[in-house]
Specification:
Layout (H helix, E strand, L loop, with lengths): L1 H5 L2 H17 L6 E10 L5 E2 L4 E4 L5 E3 L5 E8 L1 E8 L6 E7 L4 E8 L5 E6 L11 E2 L7 E2 L7 E5 H6 L5 H4 L6 E2 L13 E2 L2 E2 L5 E3 L2 E2 L16 E7 L4 H4 L8 E5 L7 E9 L3 E11 L6 E11 L9 E15 L2 E14 L5 E2 L25 E17 L3 E24 L5 E28 L2 E29 L13 E23 L3 E18 L4 E18 L5 E12 L14 E12 L6 E18 L6 E19 L4 E16 L16 E10 L8 E10 L2 E2 L7 E2 L2 E12 L2 E8 L7 E7 L2 E6 L4 E9 L1
Parallel strand pairs: 1-8, 16-19
Antiparallel strand pairs: 1-2, 1-5, 3-4, 3-6, 6-7, 8-9, 10-11, 12-18, 13-14, 14-15, 16-17, 18-19, 20-21, 20-46, 21-22, 22-23, 23-24, 24-26, 25-45, 26-27, 27-28, 28-29, 29-30, 30-31, 31-32, 32-33, 33-34, 34-35, 35-36, 36-37, 37-38, 38-39, 39-42, 40-41, 42-43, 43-46, 44-45
């Protein structure tokens, strides 16, 4: 129970001090700006339009234009807002602006019957933007964070750029409650854990549509440069998305076409012979902006910290938007990506975490076969986002994506370390995966009022179909001297181990009522029913199984928004995930389920571009699969509980300072198990504590204006590689840094991760009777030269 967590005095002492620091620090930089502009009729020689209502949605801020079409909205806190301009007989404009300065933000709006265009937004000070006051993935309707009864983080494009992020796992380093680098250095795929529970195969989304990976057949590593932002709601989310992990998800929001033309090119050399180029172009195609485009691309050729392991990538993402009016929008999204790398290396515990009489194993040690090992992945997708306003109250949306991924994975890996403590037996593993999937989400949203309650009601039906083919082969490989490895030995052909075809279909119907009561209270009610059907063909055994699951998921949440910027909330939510296979009795497994209670508060000091979130949670995962130690068969008796606290603070101040800070304490234990000796233990790869602070400051005036510095500290608590918790990866604290300079459209930047080159074991685990360890990322330095126009 949550009460149990509160008894841990050390945790609460740290949380209290940490919270007090952030709450007192944030208001010190409170800044406000002024939004001014002109509204004109685009089809009448730019005739000024009087009496146009211009307001900032979600607030009482607004003004009407005068006879000359001008308006002024004073005392607007620094931040990102949606501005709406409406006049009877004209299309309503609704666009985003950024107020990043205490000076004036100028906004020109043109209204016409044919198209709607937002004119230039002039920001007379620095670029910023660590704070996003709106999030789509937690509710699917894009409500402000203060109205969301759930712990959620948003990693903005500015954060990604400032930290020089190359992988999704790196983007999550400063986010509470999530482990993106579960096994340390990992170039192949993204292993995700939320609140202690694994979500690698079901927790990754792009634009609100799931990227599935049944049975670890393929794997994903999204390109961060293609993201406008990354949203991380924590806790069960099946009420909106269907089958998923109880701990949370990552929603990768793609870059979209813009009405404002711009472009940038980036050249990034760095450690490990890295050469990378990026390009991002966007703007209108025709004069009135009915059509607009965006093209984003990355080309990389690089080695890694491990010998014989490359990190090459080709990525490009074209998109086109058609917006014939302010009520209609259709965006076509394409994506293509290839990756060429090899397996991260698992090394014996003796020589890494524990002493070995022959010495210590270096971080760059490769124990595979360069002529055999490979990890080649090709993926592509195409889809669209459609939105149509119907009248003043109804909006319908549809999202569709077809995606395909092919994987060619061949790895020679270590087995048992011999008595001489230097000769390691090896095996060969081949995995060839093919996945084709289609995801469709249909939504209808209506706004209405009953008495003093304002409703945003959402109805939806989504469909997912995934077909996966997975062929796996195992064999032996010659042994290797781990201290003096020699390569080129002939590796025998492996034997077939698994040849499986899986077809999954899921249909979900959901409803949500987001209710604002008396301008202070927000009540969120969710319900969803899912029907899942899975067919599994085991071609080697010539058997076929079918499985049908039906499950209801619910959520209820309540938020109170006070006048001082404090918004306490409480919620209950559920999740489910179909479990593939049958038990010893031949019956199909029940779906895995999750249940969570969460209570917390958000604090947004009035007049500041900042927020602080504190969340307490009690999360239970039930019916997950385990191996019976006596029969070695899969059984469904597992249950685990996660209780903890998460704290996050984010701020962007007009003085040039950006901040993020987070702290996580999670007490995760196995409460029921087929192996009773495991009960009470912490699951493997779960860090009990994590914390981080990042600050970036840019000089705003003087001869060195545009020069900036960033620094961060990350603490990763210990984790276990076995149950009953005897093999431990120790805690570690790492530091990152950056220096950058903006001048005439150029940005010169240098990032250093793990500045002090702290060599550390990131994880441990047991395979057979051998203990293994994996290293974390060593120091990497990346330079960046960017030109933006």
């Amino acid at each position: 129970m949550i009460i149990a967590v509160m008894t841990r005095s050390s945790t609460w002492l740290f949380a209290a001090v940490f919270t007090a620091f952030l709450v007192t620090a944030f208001p010190a930089y409170a800044q406000q700006g002024i939004v001014t502009g002109t509204v004109v009729a685009a089809d009448s020689d730019e005739k000024p339009l009087p009496s146009v209502n211009v307001g900032i949605t979600g607030s009482s801020l607004g003004a009407a234009t005068d006879e000359s079409g001008r308006f002024t909205i004073p005392e607007v806190p620094v931040g990102t807002y949606t501005v709406k301009a409406s006049l009877v007989g004209y299309e309503t404009v609704e666009r985003q602006i950024e107020v990043r300065t205490s000076e004036t933000t100028a906004l020109n709006i043109r209204l016409s019957q044919k198209s709607v265009e937002l004119g230039g937004i002039t920001v007379t000070d620095r670029r910023g933007g660590y704070v996003s006051d709106e999030v789509a993935s937690a509710t699917k309707i894009g409500v402000p964070l203060t109205e969301t009864p759930q712990s959620v983080s948003v990693i903005t494009r500015n954060q990604l750029a400032a930290k020089g992020v190359d992988r999704l796992s790196e983007a999550l380093r400063y986010t509470p409650g999530v482990q993106g680098e579960t096994f340390g250095f990992e170039p192949r795929t993204t292993f995700l854990r939320f609140r202690g529970f694994d979500a690698t195969t079901s927790g990754l989304y792009r634009n609100g549509l799931q990227l599935r990976n049944p049975s670890f057949a393929v794997g994903y590593s999204p390109e961060p440069y293609g993201a406008e932002r990354i949203e991380v709601p924590r806790g069960p989310s099946s009420v909106l998305y269907g089958a998923g992990s109880p701990g949370g998800l990552v929603n990768f929001v793609s870059k979209r076409p813009t009405q404002e033309p711009f472009g940038e090119v980036v050249f990034e050399p760095g450690s490990n012979n890295r050469l990378q180029g990026k390009i991002d172009l966007s703007g209108p195609i025709d004069e009135d902006g009915t059509f607009s485009y965006r093209f984003t691309s990355v080309v990389r050729e690089a080695d890694t910290q491990v010998e014989n392991v490359p990190n090459d990538r080709l990525f490009f993402a074209p998109s086109i938007r058609w917006r014939p009016s302010g009520a209609t929008s259709l965006t076509l999204l394409g994506r293509y990506q290839t990756d060429n790398t090899r397996s991260s290396q698992r090394l014996p515990v003796a020589g890494t975490l524990e002493p070995n009489p022959n010495g210590a194993l270096p971080v760059d040690r490769f124990l595979g076969e360069p002529g055999v090992d490979r990890y080649d992945r090709e993926q592509w997708s195409i889809g669209y986002l459609f939105s149509q306003d119907i009248g003043s109250a109804w909006t319908v949306e549809q999202k569709l994506r077809y995606y395909s991924i092919n994987l060619d994975d061949v790895t020679v890996f270590g087995g048992v370390l011999q008595d001489d403590m230097r000769t390691l037996s090896r095996s060969l593993f081949e995995s060839f995966g093919e996945l084709g999937g289609i995801a469709l989400d249909n939504q209808a949203q209506v706004d209405f009022t009953t008495g003093q309650a304002q409703h945003t009601f959402l109805l939806g039906v989504d469909v997912q179909q995934v077909d996966v083919g997975s062929e796996q082969n195992f064999g032996t490989a010659p042994p290797i001297d781990i201290f003096d490895p020699g390569f080129g030995s002939e590796v025998p052909e492996p034997s077939p181990s698994q040849d499986t075809d899986i077809s999954q279909r899921q249909i979900g119907a959901y409803a949500q009522d987001h209710i604002n009561l008396l301008d202070k209270w927000t009540l969120a009610l969710n319900g969803r029913v899912d029907w899942a059907h899975t067919e599994t063909d085991r071609n080697l055994e010539e058997t076929q199984t079918e499985q049908d699951d039906t499950e209801f998921s619910g959520r209820v949440g309540l938020v109170y928004e006070s006048d001082i910027g404090l918004a306490p909330y409480a919620s209950y939510s559920e999740s489910f995930l179909p479990s593939l296979g049958t038990g010893p009795d031949g019956e199909a497994f029940d779906p895995e389920t999750g249940m969570q209670w969460e209570a917390g508060a958000r604090y947004q000091p009035p007049g500041t571009n900042s927020y602080l979130t504190v969340a307490l949670f009690d999360l239970t995962r039930e019916n997950f699969l385990q191996t019976d130690p006596e029969t070695f068969q899969q059984v469904q008796t597992g249950e685990a509980n996660s209780q903890g606290i998460e704290i996050e603070g984010v701020a962007s101040f007009a003085v040039g300072l950006d901040l993020t800070a987070s702290y996580t304490r999670q007490d995760v234990e196995i409460t029921e198990s087929a192996n009773e000796q495991e009960e009470g233990d912490r699951p493997t790869q779960v860090r009990e504590q994590m914390g981080s602070v990042w600050a970036d400051y840019t000089l705003q005036s003087g001869s060195l204006s545009g020069l900036g510095f960033g620094a961060g500290v990350r603490h990763l608590g210990d984790s276990f590689g076995d149950t009953p918790n005897t093999l431990k990866a120790p805690a570690v604290t790492l530091a990152d840094a950056a220096v950058h300079y903006n001048w005439n459209g150029f940005r010169l930047q240098v990032n250093a991760d793990n500045v002090f080159d702290n060599e550390h074991v990131a994880s441990t685990f047991v395979s057979g009777r051998q203990g293994f360890a994996t290293y974390g990322a060593e120091r990497t330095v990346t330079a960046s030269i960017r030109y933006r126009w």
